[in-house]
Amino acid sequence: DAGVTQSPTHLIKTRGQQVTLRCSPKSGHDTVSWYQQALGQGPQFIFQYYEEEERQRGNFPDRFSGHQFPNYSSELNVNALLLGDSALYLCASSPPPGTLDSHNEQFFGPGTRLTVL
Amino acid sequence: AQSVTQLGSHVSVSEGALVLLRCNYSSSVPPYLFWYVQYPNQGLQLLLKYTTGATLVKGINGFEAEFKKSETSFHLTKPSAHMSDAAEYFCAVSKGGEYGNKLVFGAGTILRVKS
User: Fold this and answer.
1) Is B107 close to A107, i.e. CB distance below 8 A?
2) CA-to-CA distance for A46 and B41, rounded, in angstroms?
3) B44 and which of A5, A72, B36, B54 could share a cystine (Cβ 3.0–4.6 Å)?
4) Which residues are CB-neighbours of B53 under 8 A, at least 6 positions away?
5) What is the pLDDT of residue B51?
6) The predicted structure's pLDDT at residue A101
């Protein structure tokens, strides 16, 4: 059973460009969350998608947007890249709400390392 | 708002010694608490979690943590450190249930194990 997968593993962009990161959740999971982990810091919640809609959002500007597809996979888009967007972007998936206790646990992918020059 | 404080950004122990990583949280509702481990250039792996029930929870690789509501703490321990335990550890809190499962993380503690 494949876990959470993310692509690409590494990405280099220049300031002002746009980037799309992709995530496939663990089998049986329908909720996808995205986190940004800057160097030396803990992950910060960006947003969460469930039933193809943004369910929760952290304190990130509108330059950060997302999408969830009918197969539960998800994309994170960042427009007008800034140097400060350089980070490890982590995707996490979780089971459907109502699954006893397990909805509160998130399973993380290996991340996409984004470098903005 | 929820928050997590991890005391000590770096902890160094000798192989075979006790590991103690400290985590304090604040939450307006009964929290769900987690410890994750991150090895270099990898994602996060769940070590253990507290949701309800027994306040002493056991996780993988011999780690355990105790939820102490009165102290708003969830410290991570392991009786005997192994070289393979060297990694970065993150404590996280969520409201869970109807509030959703968004995680709020601490800044992390890097554990070094000396031979």
Assistant:
1) no
2) 20
3) B36
4) none
5) 85
6) 56
